[in-house]
Amino acid sequence: MQNKHTSGSSSRTVLFSRWAAFGLITLSGFGWSGCATQSTARFSPQAVAAMSPAAEVVQPFEAMRLGKRYVAEHPGTEFLVGSGNSMLPLYKDHTVVVTQQVAVADLKAGMTAVYFGDSGRPVAHVLVKKTSDGWIAMGVGNAKCDTTPVTQDNLLGVVVRAYEPTSSPLVALLNEAAMKSSVASMR
Predict the structure, then answer these.
(1) CB-count burial class (<10 Å; 0-12, 13-18, 19+) for 131
(2) How far apart are CA 78 and CA 67, in angstroms?
(3) Predicted structure pTM score
(4) DSSP E strand boundaries for the chain
(5) Which are the contacts of 61, defined by CB distance < 8 A and separation ≥ 6?
(6) Distance (Å, rounded) from C-alpha 57 to C-alpha 59?
(7) Cβ atoms of residues 157 and 100 within 8 Å
(8) How confident is the model at residue 18 (pLDDT cuts 50, 70, 90)?
(9) What would the mean pLDDT of 45-56 be, rounded to a whole number?
């Protein structure tokens, strides 16, 4: 299944499947974007509360199921699984986030944007300040801002839904397998 991005812009066109995107964000993490020395730009907790959805706490496998269902019912959305702690306390490790495609002109401070950072991997961070180069973003739990500005060319979308699993899906899978005696001893 192809990603629904169909615009002609070169670096914004994303041609990998949802599963590839899922794997990419899972492996790369929310916060691997590097930080700028701009310590003066800070996020507003009130803006984040107003513009970034709080995560709904659900069972581990429900997070993925709910993310997939939302995407199936809402064109222009994608889901990703976050890895890392840069967005604590807003989004914990393994939170499934659903993004909606938006134009850069529609971005507002406090929104959580998902964009390709300087490493080329997706980053989900809060928008702090608009500049002539794009938006400055930073992780809620980070001390410094990201080095890569958010622009139309690297923006994937903004978070419109989030599902926080009660535990790691991988740990839940291993626990389920152990309970069904489908884990072999390797001693």
Answers:
(1) exposed
(2) 8
(3) 0.73
(4) 56-58, 77-81, 96-100, 112-116, 122-131, 134-138, 155-165
(5) 165, 169, 172
(6) 7
(7) yes
(8) very low
(9) 93
The alpha-helical segments, DSSP class H, found in the chain are 18-28, 45-51, 60-73, 169-179
43: tokens are: 């996020």
Distance between CA 5 and CA 75 in Å, rounded?
10
- Assign 3-state DSSP to the chain and report helix, strand, coil percentages, each to 5: 25, 25, 50
Length of the chain: 187
Would you say the C-alpha torsion 64, 183, 24, 2 has a positive or negative sign?
negative
Looking at the chain, the whole-number percentage of residues with pLDDT higher than 90 is: 61
Question: Virtual CA dihedral for 119, 121, 125, 128, nearest 10 degrees?
Answer: 40
Residue with tokens 């002609």: 8
CB 146 within 8 A of CB 137: yes
